[in-house]
Design goal:
Layout: E1 3-4, E2 23-29, H1 36-46, H2 67-72, E3 79-85, E4 88-94, H3 102-111, E5 114-120, H4 127-138, E6 143-148, H5 157-168, E7 172-174, E8 176-180, E9 187-192, E10 197-200, E11 208-210, H6 217-233, H7 239-245, H8 252-264, E12 269-273, H9 282-292, E13 304-306, E14 324-333, E15 337-346, E16 348-349, E17 353-359, E18 370-376, E19 379-383, E20 386-390, E21 393-394, E22 398-402, E23 412-415, E24 420-422, E25 432-438, H10 441-457, E26 462-466, E27 471-476, H11 479-491, E28 496-499, E29 506-509, E30 513-521, E31 528-538, E32 545-549, H12 561-574, E33 585-593, H13 601-618, E34 621-635, H14 639-648, E35 652-658, E36 665-673, H15 680-687, E37 693-703, H16 706-720
Parallel strand pairs: 1-20, 2-4, 2-5, 5-6, 6-12, 7-12, 32-33
Antiparallel strand pairs: 3-4, 8-9, 9-10, 10-11, 13-24, 14-15, 14-23, 15-22, 16-21, 17-18, 17-23, 19-20, 25-27, 25-28, 26-27, 29-34, 30-31, 31-33, 34-36, 34-37, 35-36
Helix pairs in contact: 12-13
The structure holds guanosine-5'-triphosphate and magnesium ion.
């Protein structure tokens, strides 16, 4: 929750920069538990931004302030924490590593100009991190690697570097080696490979600097040569390589400048060993973030258009340019209202100003297009949940707005008199359905209100009110995401339960049948009289319903024929054997009887329904289930496992092909009954160590196998009893 900064040991005032060249936006990525949040905490403490580092286990960190994060002991949301180092403002964007929260990671990537891959020296790397590296490579995003948790007894720096190079490529090279203490295990310092100096952290931070001992000579020489060759290979100055090969000692300044340029261009990726606990390497990492990572000036802006989509000149990261900013994330704070994290791309955002807020392109996710002018009263610098007031946010920087009534994640903020639009980034599709029910009537009202708020902030959540199954379905990214959403709803005072997700089945006739509907009540008072005979025939899939009148001689008076049809239709909607709508039939009314006084519209409707039910009893009603077209994207090594799992799901594999957009990835196309896909989001992830993704779309209805249909009928009968 947003709170005043003093409460959390935040020291000093919010950093302010007026020059985009003095901003760095760095997103921290890497698998869950790699130590991102702990590293952010250590960097904030090391730069004096906060009094002392909090801890993830105690729930006292700047990033993981959400009660859901404290409960799950991991980050569940994107968090922004700025620090100042050497006059440069570094906005650290801490993302959750857990796959369910990939939407938060996407938002963080959008707001950043460079990525710090945090890799644990204890646990190594996961497939999702490898995939993310590839993705960053595709857009040329500058990257560096922090190898963390060096104080752990199983920490293995060399092996972790080797893993990183194997997965990320050869241009990933350490700038420092860890220096071990007398016990041969603890890491007390770093050996700088470029400077050939030793940095000792055991007694002080910043570290004491000294010359290396003779014993370090061979290790330094080997790693240094490799590093220098790597840097020179990426240098724009081709004469350097010649000089180096001839045995020239390249000047330190030249090496450092070339290194920084290659990093900023996204061609070279420095590795820094760090330990949040002992502060080893924090200063070295800050140097990389501020000196080697590029400022927003070097990052191409997303394309802008008018709010009607008409093309506009590309913009530059210029504080004096037209205002274009993007809502990276909106959270709903129970006390403050909406808190929106905003990345300014062009122009300068100021308090006490009226801006235009546009949201387009998210209609399919339940976010209708909106365009409104809104007054911004205050502007803040965020620090996790804390907000500190600020007077301006220039192009390239990140700030927070509170109390906006319309700003949703992905929205564009622009000048009132020059409204512009940038299309939101690609957001992942939620594929795990969770059916929820409010416990009481008053909970239902509260639920509707709270769900609207949650959906506004989280585009990776989709709300579906399924008219056929009459369920309220929240589509989530996975179980941990669902957990967070349910906890937030409960925290909002709504008492809810979950229930099994129902799939919208259909009923149809397997063959022709006849039905006699007789609704006759003539004892006392106004009587009821209607008799009708119908024939039911199946129609091809997707035909819907056809009604044919073959009455001759007026046995059913003309005005009651639509009544029979209405009665049949209403019975079809309610279903016959399992409560699902009946489809794809032709009903022919061929005989009947009426009474001059007692017949009525209502009586013939009832008779029509009865006739259809009798036809069902005499004939055979089958259940149809939706079948989806599914495309699964997996690393090649999982193809066997995923295909054999498909047969257990009654899936039909249509084919496989190499993924045209990625190396060593395969696309598996299949048709799978929707009932078998309810938990596929979770199960595919488990099967593929988090590296598989899939997309699904409705294809058609197919008959359900008899034994499964029988089970559905029994369940329906039991529920009715
Ligand atoms: N001893 C020690 N423990 C660490 C260090 N870094 C992280 N940890 C611990 O490792 C656990 C996970 O660290 P986090 O910082 O939450 O990891 P994360 O990368 O933010 O994880 P997600 O938020 O799930 O993506 C926590 O219990 C930390 O206290 C370190 O340098 N030394
Ligand atoms: Mg974290």
């Amino acid at each position: 929750m947003a709170q005043k900064s003093q409460e959390k040991g935040v020291t000093g005032s919010a950093p302010v920069v007026e020059d985009p060249g003095r901003v760095r936006n760095v997103v921290l990525v890497g698998h869950s538990g790699a130590g991102k949040t702990t590293l952010v905490e250590a960097l904030l403490a090391a730069t004096g931004t906060i009094g002392r580092a909090g801890s993830v286990t105690e729930g006292t960190t700047v990033s993981d302030h959400d009660p859901a994060a404290v409960k799950q002991q991991r980050s569940v949301a994107l968090s922004c924490a700025p620090l100042m180092h050497n006059g440069i403002k570094v906005n650290l964007l801490d993302t959750p590593g857990y796959a369910d929260f990939v939407g938060e990671l996407r938002a963080g990537l959008r707001a950043a100009d460079a990525a710090l891959f945090v890799v644990s020296s204890v646990d190594g790397m996961d497939a999702a991190t490898a995939a993310l590296w590839e993705e960053c490579a595709a857009v040329g995003m500058p990257r560096a690697v922090a190898i963390t948790r060096l104080d752990h007894q199983r920490a293995d720096f060399d092996e972790t570097v080797a893993t990183c190079r194997g997965v990320f490529g050869d241009n990933v090279l350490p700038l420092y080696l860890p220096l071990h203490g007398d016990d041969g295990q603890s890491v007390v310092g770093l050996i700088g490979l470029i400077t050939q100096r030793i940095f000792e952290y055991s007694a002080s931070y910043p570290p004491a600097v000294r010359d290396p001992d003779a014993e370090h000579g061979p290790a330094i020489a080997e790693a240094r040569n490799e590093l220098i060759e790597g840097i020179i290979a990426e240098s724009e100055d081709e004469s350097l390589m010649e000089r180096y090969l001839e045995g020239d000692d390249i000047e330190l300044e030249v090496l450092i400048t070339d290194l920084e340029k290659a990093v900023a261009r996204g061609h070279f990726f420095p590795v820094v060993p760090v330990c949040a606990e002992t502060k080893v390497g924090l200063d070295a990492l800050l140097e990389v973030l501020t000196s080697a990572f590029p400022s927003p000036l070097e990052h191409e802006l997303p394309p802008v258009t008018g709010t009607d989509g008409s093309p506009r000149e590309p913009l530059k990261c210029d504080p004096n340019g037209p205002l274009v900013a993007e809502v990276v994330k909106t959270t709903i704070d129970p006390y403050v209202g909406r808190v929106s994290l905003v990345r300014v791309f062009s122009g300068t955002l100021r308090p006490e100003s009226t801006v235009h807020i546009s949201g387009h392109g998210m209609e399919a996710r339940g976010h209708p297009d909106h365009d409104t002018d809104e007054r911004i009263a205050h502007l803040y610098t965020p620090l996790g949940a804390n907000v500190r007031e600020t007077q301006a946010c220039v192009a390239g920087d990140i700030c927070a707005l509170t109390k906006s009534t319309s700003a949703e994640t992905g929205d564009t903020i622009s000048a009132k008199d020059k409204p512009l639009l940038i299309m939101p980034w690609d957001m992942p599709e939620p594929l795990l359905p969770v059916a929820i029910v409010a416990k009481t009537r008053s909970d239902e009202d509260a639920l509707a209100k709270n769900l609207g708020r949650l959906v506004a902030g989280d585009p990776t959540m989709r709300l579906e009110r399924n008219a056929e199954t009459r369920q309220l379905v929240l589509w989530c990214m996975g179980e941990a995401h669902a957990d967070v959403v349910l906890d937030r709803l409960k925290a909002g005072g709504v008492d809810i339960d979950t229930e099994p997700v129902k799939v919208a089945l259909r009923e149809t006739f397997a063959g022709p049948s006849k039905g006699h509907g007789r609704h006759v009540k003539q004892s006392g008072g106004h009587g009821q009289y209607a008799v009708c005979d119908i024939e039911v025939e199946p129609l091809p899939r997707g035909s819907g319903f056809e009604f044919v009148d073959r009455i001759v001689g007026g046995v059913v008076p003309h005005n009651y024929i639509p009544s029979v049809e209405k009665g049949v239709r209403s019975q079809m909607e309610r279903g016959i054997v399992a409560g699902y709508p009946v489809v794809d039939i032709k009903v022919t009314l061929f005989d009947g009887k009426a009474h001059s006084v007692d017949s009525s519209d209502a009586a013939f409707q009832t008779a029509g329904g009865l006739a259809l039910r009798e036809a069902a009893e005499k004939g055979q009603v089958t259940l149809l289930e939706p079948v989806d077209d599914v495309t699964i994207r997996i690393p090649d090594s999982f193809v066997g496992a995923v295909m054999s799992d498909m047969s257990g799901r009654r899936g039909r594999v249509l084919g496989t092909e190499p993924d045209p957009n990625a190396n060593e990835k395969t696309l598996v196309r299949a048709e799978v009954p929707a009932t078998e896909l309810v938990r596929y989001a979770v199960e595919l992830r488990a099967m593929t160590s988090g590296s598989g993704t899939f997309a699904r779309s409705f294809a058609r209805y197919d008959p359900m196998p008899t034994h499964l249909a029988e089970q559905v009928r029994k369940e329906h009968a039991a529920a009715k009893a």
